[in-house]
Amino acid sequence: MENESAQGQEKLSFRIRRMRLEDIPQVVAIDQVSFSLPWSERSFRFELTQNQNSRSWVCESVSTEGTTKIVGMMVIWLVVDEAHVATIAVDPAYRRRSLARRLLAYGLLELFEEGARVSHLEVRRGNVAAQRLYYEFGYEEVGIRPRYYKDNFEDAILMTLPEIQPEHLKQILRG
User: Fold this and answer.
1) Which phi and psi (to 5°) does residue 139 adopt?
2) Per annotation, catalytic residue among 122, 148, 149, 154
C-alpha cells in the first residue's frame, strides 16, 4: 500500500511484519504517545520472548530510498480458539491512513489460520474512533468493566467478534 508523506513529496509504502526485539524502542514510543497508561519496554520484551500466546506485529513505512520507520504496532493473544486484542496503536503522524484497520485485519487473519474463531478486546468508553473501527469489523458490545482504567477510572467496553470472517479480512487487506 502506498501513500504520500505529510510533506507531499515523498511516496511511502507500508508493510506489516512480525515485531522484533530491535523494534521495541520505536514501539514503546508509539505506545507512549497513544495511551495514558502505556506498556513498559519490559512488557513488550515479555510478549516477544516469554508469552507463548502472544503474537506481535509492526507496521513500518518504507521510503523510496528504502528507509524504514515503525509507525504502528499490535499485540494479540491466542488462547485456544480466541484472539484477544491486547493493544494496537498507530503513530499520530500516520493516522487516518487505514493502518490500524490493516494491522487488525492482518493479525486476525493470521490468528484465524492458527485456529482462532472469535476475538475479544476492551476499549475505553471515550475512544469513539477505535470503537468505530471495531464495529466495522463486526465486533459487538457485550459488557462493561466499570472504572477499569486506573488513570481516570474510565469504563472499559468489552467487545466480541463472534465469528472471524477471513474473506472480509482479505478484502480489507486488498484495500
Assistant:
1) -65, 150
2) 122
Backbone dihedral region for residue 130 (phi beyond 0: left; psi -120 to 50: alpha; all else: beta): alpha
Q: Active-site residue among 47, 106, 110, 134?
A: 134
Query: Rounded to the nearest 5°, which phi and psi values hold at 26?
Result: -70, -35
Q: Tell me the CA distances in angstroms from 92 to 12, 27, 33, 142, one per residue in order.
A: 16, 13, 8, 29
Burial 21-32 (b: 16+ CB within 10 A, else e): eebbebbbebbe
| Cell numbers 507463548: residue | 52
pLDDT digits (tens, 9 = 90+) for 46-98: 999 999 999 999 999 998 888 999 999 999 999 999 999 999 999 999 999 99
Q: Within 10 Å of residue 170's Cβ, how many Cβ atoms?
A: 11
**More confident call, 26 vs 66:** 26
What CATH class does 2-174 carry?
A: alpha beta
In the DSSP assignment, the letter for residue 163 is S
Active site residue 60: no
Answer yes or no: 122 catalytic. yes
Residue 6 DSSP SS3: coil
Count of alpha carbons within 13 Å of 130, Cβ hemisphere only?
21
Banded pLDDT at 148 (limits 50, 70, 90): confident
